[in-house]
Amino acid sequence: MGWLKILSLVLLQNSLACRRWWRRKADGLWLREAGKCPWTGGGSLWGELEVPSGPSEAADTWLSSKAESGRITITVELERDGVAAYELNAFEGKSPQDIADRFAELGRRCSKAKPRRTVDCGPFREGTLHTLSNKIGEKACQHPEAKDARALFCRYPPRFYGHAGICNQYTQFCPFEELRMESDPSLIDTAVINVDAEMFHSMEECGVFQRELWIFKVFVHWCPHCQQLMPLLYRLALVLRQRGIRALRFGAVNCATEHELCAAQNWPGHPLLIARYLGPDRAVHDAIEHWVDVVKDAQLRQMLPRYALPGEFPVLKILLEQLPSSMLPKSSWSFLFDADAEHAQSSGCANLTALHLEHPEGADDRVGNGWHDAERNFTTRRRWTDAMLMLRHVLQEWIAPLGDDGNADAFSHGQLLIMESWVELLARNLPDAFGLADPLQELQSALLQRVRAAQRPEGSSLCADEWKLLTAPVLTRIAEVGQRDFVVASACASDTCRMWSLLHTLASEGFRREQGELSSKSELILSPSSPDVMMQTVHDFLEQFFKCHYCRRHFLKNFEAGSFGRDLAKTSRRQVVLYFWRFHNAVSVRVTAWHSCNTTDRRWPPSSVCPRCWEQTADDWPVLSEARDVVRGGASRALDLKSAPNEEEILKFLQSAFAEPDDLS
Ligand SMILES: Cc1cc2nc3c(=O)[nH]c(=O)nc-3n(C[C@H](O)[C@H](O)[C@H](O)COP(=O)(O)OP(=O)(O)OC[C@H]3O[C@@H](n4cnc5c(N)ncnc54)[C@H](O)[C@@H]3O)c2cc1C
To answer: Which amino acid residue places its CA nearest to atom 15 of ligand 1?
Structure first.
C-alpha cells in the first residue's frame, strides 16, 4: 500500500496536527494528515491529507468518484455545520506516551533467552589479557566492512603501524618513537584492550572497575574521526604503560561487532569516550565529575549518558589534568598533548580524510583548490553508487534498536515512526534507476501496519530480527541492481561523504520530479516528498540514527538555529537542494579551518569544474561564518579569496551531478 497525496487544499476542523489518522464514520475509510502542517485562509483552517492507495475497496470507490481528469483534486470536509463526517482515530484514546510504553513493553518479548554469560576473572588476575584482547580484535576485523583501508582501523594495536603505504602519505599513522623502541609485545598488545560484550560483563563482575579507572573508546573502523583518534589514544596509552601507570587503563569497543553492548549501554554514536570507575578514591570520582561538567553542554547531556563524552583527544586532557598526580604525574602525559597541538598547527594541513588517494595541492582553482582534479570525472552514476552503498549501510548498520530502556532487541515506538517516514522518503525520492521503489513501498507499508497496530488495543512491537526480515527484499534488490547497473567506482572515500551523496541525491531527484519530467502516472503514484516533510524527515533520521557523533551534533545545532536557509528550504524543493549544498560547504570549510589548512579551499564545486558557479565579490559568504569563527582573523584561502555563488548555476550543476541519469561509464 502506498499513499496518494490529495493535491487540493482541504477544509478541516480546528484540531489538525500532523501525521494523524482520520476515520470516515460512514465506511471506516481512513485518511492521514500529510506532513505539511495546517494554515489558515478565508476564515478556515486548511491542510493536506493523504489517502491510502492499494487494495482498499472504500478508498478505491471513493477515489474513483472524486478523480478528475486523471488527477486527484478533492476537497474533504471533515465537518460541516458542527457535524463531523470523520473522526480523529489517533491513539484510540491513549496518549502517545502510553502507546510508546506499551510498544516498549511488548518489545521485551523480542529478547531471546540469552545464554548465560561466562564470567572468567582469570585474565584480569593473571595479567593474560593480551590473548583475549587479540582474539576480540581479530573478531572485529572479520567484520565484512573491515576491508581495504578500513581494515587498518578495526582493532588495537592499530594495524596501520605495519603499513608503509599509509605512513608515506600521512605521518600520524607512522610508528612513533616509543613504539619503535618497545620490545615487550605484551605491552604493545595491552596498551589499549579490545573489549567485547562478554569481556565488559566480566570486567563488571570481576571488580575491575573497583580497582582501576577505565576509559573506553567507542568506535567503528570506518568512521574518519575514530580513525584520527586511534593513533593519538594509542600513543598516550602505550606511553603511560611504559611509565608504569597502572591505575588508568584504556579499552576499545568496536560497535560494528558489539552492537548489542553499545545499544545496551546506550552509546548512540562514535567516537565516544566512556569513563568507568567504581573504586573508593574520592579524588578520581571528583575528576570524572569535573570532566563531565566542564565538557558537556546542555545538548550533550541530552544526547549522551552521563559518563559518555565526545571522542576528541583534547577532551581527554581535561580529565587527566584533574586526576591526582600520585596516580598520574603530569610529566608522564602532558608532552603528548603539546605535540598534538604543535602537529596540528605546524603541519599546515593535517589530512582531512585519511583515505583520499592524493593530496590536491596541484589544483589552481580560484575556488575549491582543496578538491581533487578527479572531481571532473565524477559522473552521476558514480555519485549514485555512493548513495546506494550508503543506503545499504543505513539499512544494515545504522538503523538499529536503541530503546530508551536499553533493549537492544526491539525498536522504540519513536524509532518506528522515524523509520516509516524515512523509508517513505526513500521510496518517493530515489531515482528510478535505483529500482527500489517497489520493495521500499512494501517495507513502508509493513512499518505502517506496525504503527497502526500500535494504536489498537492489542498493540505491537518491532523486533530487530523482524526488521532484518523486512529489509531483506530491499537489500536483495540493492545487490541485484548494484551488480548490474552500479559497477562503477565509488567517488567517496568515507561514509559521511556517502551520506552526503544520499542526501544530495534525494533532494535533487525530488526537485527533478517536481519539474514534471516524469510521466503524470508515476508522478501521481510516487510524488516526491514535500519540502517540509523532506527537511523534517532528514532531521529526525539524522538525529536518531546518524552514527557520526560530531556530525550529528553539528547538524542538529545548525538545524535548530535555522542556518543555511532552513526555513526557505521547508517551502521549496529547489531550496532543499541548495540547503544541503550550503550545509555541506559550511562543514567542509569549517573542517579545513579546524585543521589549520590555510591554503586549502574546500568550497564546492571547484571553479575549474564549474566556472560559472562563482563570481568575484568583496563580501563575505554568510554560509562560512562558522569557519570564520574558527580562523578568528587568521589566514584562510577559502575566506580570503572572496567569491559569491551564482545559485542558479549551482543548482544546474547540482542537478547534473546528482539527478541526471547518464550512461554507465
Ligand atoms: C550532515 C553531516 C554533518 C557533518 N558534520 C561534520 C562535522 O561537524 N565535523 C566534521 O568533521 N565532519 C562532519 N561531517 C563529515 C564531513 O562533511 C565529511 O564527510 C568528512 O570530513 C569526510 O570528507 P571527505 O573528504 O570524504 O569529503 P566529503 O565532504 O564528505 O564529500 C566530498 C565529495 O562530495 C562532493 N561535494 C563536496 N562538497 C559538496 C557540496 N557542497 N554539495 C554537493 N556535493 C559536494 C564532491 O564530489 C566531493 O568529492 C558531516 C557529514 C554530514 C553528512
So the answer is: 496
